[in-house]
Design brief:
- The structure is a single chain.
- This protein is mainly alpha-helical.
- It has 12 helices and 3 strands; from the N terminus they run βαααααββααααααα.
- A 3-stranded antiparallel β-sheet has the order 1-3-2.
- Strand 2 and strand 3 form a beta hairpin.
- It is globular, with a radius of gyration of 31 Å.
């Protein structure tokens, strides 16, 4: 990487991935790593979304599930719209995606990253349990509160990174075109204050608050509850999600603030490593949900059984029993279907015998011992 900062700007940073890199190793390895993370993370987040959609259709939704579905959608947007831009940039080692993508790619990525942090902070107010759907039941979640919270989160998330879009531009560097963010010296005082408030308000405060809240809640539940409850398990899942997000995004926010506060440029390897961890964070979230969240794990088992049954070549076989939204019932139904033929062979049909025995009233014409009735009458 070879770039000189002009004299009339306070900082000079690449947008959409580090450009002007020398060496074929980085050019080959980085796109492969990013594509692998993108594909695996996209599949995981799609499965999580399908599971949550199925739960809501079956009346098993909750406020936490609605927010986690929004989190999975945000991760999906990062992996499908932001990671491919970096993969192309690392492969080309220059900018080839035009002015519009140069102006909006970092703004959109930062909007999604800020939204993830605020969504996890909003789960501290959400209800963890659901109420079965019935005509007289209380609604399992409040759609108006969820929609209002998500609208507010996304408005704030898209407003904070606006400078990422204002100061982005294409610059000619010899025969190459590069996409950079540069801030004039005249705006350095105000933007220096902004770049201290921005990471603090969108990363440090929400992550610290979320981790402290769930740590305290889990500690209280473990010490005062006689046995682990469903809410305690969900709290542990949310604590792990918040911890993974805070840890994996720390290098990205660190290098971002480091560059924009006018200090020396961080090492290129650290910048690349921070970007890889940012996308890995979006791929690890569905793994945590599938391994630790009971509802997601049961939903994944059910979806796997349904996919296996639909892919079977014998559509009329009884190998795939129907389920009513609970993956744990599959084994019981299969065992019952396997045992039922043996029961039919072992026990004869004696229903007509018991039907005849239940009718204890006998007509006079059909009474086999009429003299007993006559003796009783005397």
């Amino acid at each position: 990487m070879d770039i000189d900062r002009p004299a009339n700007v306070s900082f000079y940073d690449f947008i959409g991935g580090v450009q002007l890199l020398q060496g074929n190793d980085t050019r080959t390895a980085m796109p492969v790593i990013l594509i692998g993370i993108c594909v695996s993370g996209a599949v995981g987040n799609l499965l999580v979304l399908l599971i949550f959609i199925r739960d809501f259709r079956n009346g098993k939704g909750s406020e936490v599930k609605a927010l986690l579905a929004s989190l999975a959608s945000t991760d999906l947007a990062i992996l499908l719209l932001c990671a491919p831009v970096r993969a192309v940039t690392y492969y080309k080692q220059t900018w080839t995606l035009g002015t519009f993508v140069c102006s909006t790619t970092d703004w959109f990525q930062h909007s999604c990253v800020v939204a993830k942090t605020l969504i996890l902070a909003a789960t501290t107010r959400a209800k963890h349990t659901f109420v079965p759907s019935s005509p007289a039941a209380v609604p399992p979640y409040s759609p108006s509160w969820i929609h209002g919270a998500l609208a507010f989160i996304w408005i704030v998330s898209m407003m904070f990174p606006i400078p990422q879009m204002l100061y982005a531009s294409l610059v000619q560097h010899g025969r190459d075109t590069i996409c950079v963010s540069h801030m004039p010296v005249c705006a350095s005082d105000f933007m220096s204050l902004f770049y201290k408030i921005y990471p603090t308000a969108t990363y440090v405060v929400p992550v610290t608050f979320t981790l402290a809240y769930y740590t305290k809640t889990l500690h209280s539940a473990v010490n005062h509850a006689p046995s682990p409850q469903h809410q305690s398990k969900v709290t542990l899942v949310l604590l792990c999600l918040s911890g993974a997000l805070g840890l994996l995004l720390l290098p990205e926010w660190g290098t971002f603030t480091w560059i924009r506060l006018g200090y020396n440029t961080p090492p290129v390897g650290l910048i690349i490593f921070a970007q890889v961890l940012l996308y890995a964070c979006s791929s690890i979230s569905p793994v945590i949900l599938m391994t630790m969240y009971d509802d997601v794990r049961r939903g994944l088992i059910t979806i796997c059984y349904i996919a296996t049954c639909r892919g079977s070549k014998q559509p009329h076989s009884n190998k795939c029993p129907k389920t009513d939204g609970n993956g744990a019932e599959i084994g019981a139904n299969a065992v019952a279907n396997a045992v039922s033929p043996e029961k039919e062979k072992t026990f004869p049909d004696v229903e007509h015998f018991w039907t005849g025995r239940r009718n204890t009233h006998v007509e006079e014409e059909q009474d086999p011992v009429p003299w007993e009735r006559e003796e009783k009458m005397l």
